[in-house]
Design brief:
Layout lengths: L1 H7 L6 H5 L40 H12 L9 H5 L17 E9 L5 E9 L5 E10 L2 E12 L5 E8 L4 E9 L5 E9 L6 E11 L5 E10 L2 E16 L2 E12 L3 E11 L3 E9 L3 E11 L9 E10 L4 E12 L5 E10 L2 E12 L7 E12 L6 E14 L2 E12 L5 E11 L7 E9 L5 E11 L5 E9 L7 E12 L2 E9 L4 E15 L3 E2 L20 E10 L7 E10 L15 E3 L6 E5 L5 E7 L4 E7 L4 E3 L6 E7 L2 E7 L1
Parallel strand pairs: 1-29
Antiparallel strand pairs: 1-2, 1-31, 2-3, 3-4, 4-5, 5-6, 6-7, 7-8, 8-9, 9-10, 10-11, 11-12, 12-13, 13-14, 14-15, 15-16, 16-17, 17-18, 18-19, 19-20, 20-21, 21-22, 22-23, 23-24, 24-25, 25-26, 26-27, 27-28, 28-30, 30-31, 32-33, 33-36, 34-35, 34-37, 37-38
């Protein structure tokens, strides 16, 4: 019951999360929660009411981007184990010619801010430029020392076969071996760990996966080795329904753990109608038992920004074997989808008792330019639901634009602990244009007990002619007056070819150097011409440390910190090589040795031979799978080889073939 009461006060803040719910990986072990909001006084604290910088950046470009994100999704797995530990399939087998002339990341070296060596990473690739090994070093006592080593092997179809990670200094590590079905989807993973005493790899567990036709994992079964004996550990099921092309929504899940028999841990079911959605939660009591249920109804026509019109919370009564109503929220909107009224009620002794009521009054400008004001007032009812008192009020202003309204001002009034009605906070935004959502200035004030407005925080943004962030200045209030601003931090940004190449921060009015980071790129080499070990080995080193695409070849990273520090310290250098497949030559008029047919079904012939020649075939791991001497025009049988990519060597030439 307590769990459902905590769940119950979600009200309309759950609208968009529920209506466009997209189940992410690694979530089975987390409870299916409805976003919460309590009706205690703490709900009106300033931290809970911080407004969005722009409430509605509704440009057509943003809407298209959101639609693409919600309508396309990869198949879902809910174990989390593979996503956390298995490298994604970096790429499938591609023609050798696709790598010719590309720039490959071979290593990277970082230094500390004193210029001393710090870390080094070396990357290794096979003939297809698949990543096969990564070695991480740290610099100590004048030498590089290995502290981590990753090795990857690939199967003939171009998917990860094994993934190993070792920490030599501690003599610990692990390995995963992946087995695939006919659709190249993982169906079995075997886990190993390294015994730090013996250094031997021992099996620690297995994970079996079953999938539906769309590739979503519908069943997972985990076993662990306990003292050398394989024992059951966990079992999970889930089902899906297709929402749109490429996007599947989870409709149910069940999770069990082993305790001398399967014991239920979590279960939930989702059902969606045309304009409604229902979630049911269960608990385990020697079998699945209803726990709670939430049902939402939505205003038709607002799939991009769903509008909840009704939310009901139920709890299961084990004595009567029926659902008991717990709470109800009813919301009304105007013709443009703006909220006008919300009433939250609790079900007590067979009747609905109002608890919280929200009333919003809007002004309507005559034209699409100008301002729109809104007054949102919150009331709290007494225990009988008869008398209500005003507890918080928001006075807001929106700037009206072609693509919607942009939030620019808010003043908050509260009924404080002494039952005194007084102003609490005030926020103000300025934009370069209401439809871009790019803030020029943000100010925030708070009021003291004497209702005096005091400066709290201010930020001033400056952009260049291309809309790029050029400077941001951060001020904090001195607590004396409403205009008592003290400059705390300044950030300066520099760009080349539309790329941020430097950001620096300075403290105070004196502009004392604080810290920052910079990047140098080879703008003649786009990302499409790069080969990197993984996205994390490259993209993670972009400004701010965020994982985001870096569209050019990265050469160096610079940084500084501390008072008076200079900016020209190289803290990271990337080393590249241009891929030249000198040992793998395509057919040409000068070198007429070639393989046909290719792809190969049962056998092939090497054209251009004039005498008996030793021919060898290797797989993508370099293992010799066939070696024989053939005469000109003699066929080479490959019936014994499985489908995949191979390399044929003859007369100093290396030719790539595909066995079908």
């Amino acid at each position: 019951m307590k769990k459902l009461i905590t769940l119950a006060i979600g009200m309309m803040v759950v609208a968009s999360a529920v209506a466009t719910q997209k189940i992410e990986p690694n979530r089975l072990l987390q409870k299916q929660l409805v976003p919460q909001r309590t009706v205690e006084f703490a709900a009106f604290d300033r931290d809970a009411r911080v407004a969005e910088i722009t409430q509605k950046r509704a440009s057509e470009r943003q809407q298209r981007a959101l639609r693409e994100r919600t309508e396309t999704a990869n198949p879902v797995s809910f174990s989390g184990m593979l996503e956390q530990h298995k490298p994604s399939v970096f790429r499938q087998a591609v023609p050798i010619s696709d790598f010719e002339g590309k720039h490959r990341l071979d290593s990277a070296i970082s230094r500390d801010f004193s210029g001393n060596y710090f870390e080094r990473v070396v990357y290794h690739y096979n003939e297809l430029q698949f990543p096969v090994k990564q070695v991480d070093y740290f610099f100590e006592n004048g030498r590089w020392n290995v502290f981590r080593q990753v090795e990857i092997t690939w199967n003939e179809a171009g998917f990860v076969a094994t993934f190993s990670e070792m920490f030599p200094l501690q003599n610990v590590g692990g390995r995963q071996v992946f087995h695939y079905n006919a659709l190249n989807q993982v169906e079995l993973t075997i886990y190993y760990s390294v015994n730090p005493t013996t250094g031997l790899a021992v099996r620690t567990g297995k994970r079996y996966e079953e999938r539906d036709q769309a590739g979503n994992v519908t069943r997972e079964f985990v076993q662990n080795y306990i003292d050398g004996v394989l024992e059951n550990t966990a079992l999970a099921y889930q089902t899906f329904a297709k929402v749109s092309e490429g996007y599947y929504e989870r409709t149910s899940y069940r999770f069990y753990f082993w305790d001398n028999g399967w014991v239920g841990a979590q279960r939930g079911e989702n059902i969606r109608g045309e304009n409604w959605y229902r979630f049911t939660q269960y608990f385990w009591d020697n079998g699945w038992v209803y726990d709670g249920r939430v049902r939402w109804e939505f205003l038709p026509g607002y799939w991009m920004e769903p509008k909840v019109t009704r939310q009901e919370i139920f709890t299961w009564n084990t004595e009567t074997d029926s659902w008991d109503a717990l709470s109800l929220s009813i919301l009304d909107y105007d013709s443009e989808g703006r909220k006008l009224h919300e009433l939250f009620s609790n079900y007590v002794n067979g009747e609905w008792i109002p608890s919280i009521e929200v009333i919003v009054e809007w002004t309507h400008p005559m034209f699409w330019v100008g301002y729109r004001d809104a007054v949102e007032t919150w009331y709290r009812y007494d225990d009988e639901g008869i008398t209500k008192e005003k507890i918080v009020e928001f006075i807001r202003r929106y700037q009206v634009g072609m693509f919607g309204d942009t939030f620019i001002y808010e003043k908050t009034f509260i009924l404080d602990d002494y039952d005194v009605w007084r102003p609490w906070s005030e926020k103000e935004y300025e934009f370069d244009h209401p439809d871009t959502g790019d803030v020029i200035t943000f100010r925030e004030w708070f009021f003291n007990d004497d209702k005096v407005r005091l400066a709290h925080y201010k930020e001033i943004i400056t952009r260049n002619l291309y809309g790029e962030l050029k400077k941001s200045e951060h001020f904090f209030g001195g607590g004396i007056s409403d205009d008592d601003w003290a400059l705390s931090m300044t950030w300066l940004y520099d760009y080349e070819n539309g790329m941020e190449v430097r950001r620096r921060s300075f403290r105070g009015v004196e502009m004392t150097p604080n810290f920052g980071r910079g990047f140098s790129f080879d703008f003649d080499v786009p990302r499409s011409e790069l080969i990197v070990f993984s996205d994390q080995s490259y993209d993670g080193l972009t400004p701010g440390g965020h994982l985001q695409p870096t569209p050019y070849k990265l050469l160096t990273i610079h940084g500084y910190e501390g008072n008076g520090a200079t900016f020209d310290i190289s803290v990271g250098t990337f080393f590249w090589s241009e891929v030249r497949q000198t040992s793998i030559q395509p057919p040409s008029t000068e070198n007429s040795v070639f393989v046909f047919p290719n792809p190969v079904t049962d056998s092939f012939t090497i054209g251009g031979l004039t005498e008996s020649t030793l021919v060898s075939i290797t797989d993508i791991h370099g293992r010799v799978v066939l070696q024989q001497t053939i005469s000109p025009n003699e066929t080479v049988s490959v019936n014994h080889l499985s489908a995949g990519v191979y390399f044929v060597r003859a007369n100093g030439n290396v030719m790539r073939i595909v066995r079908k």
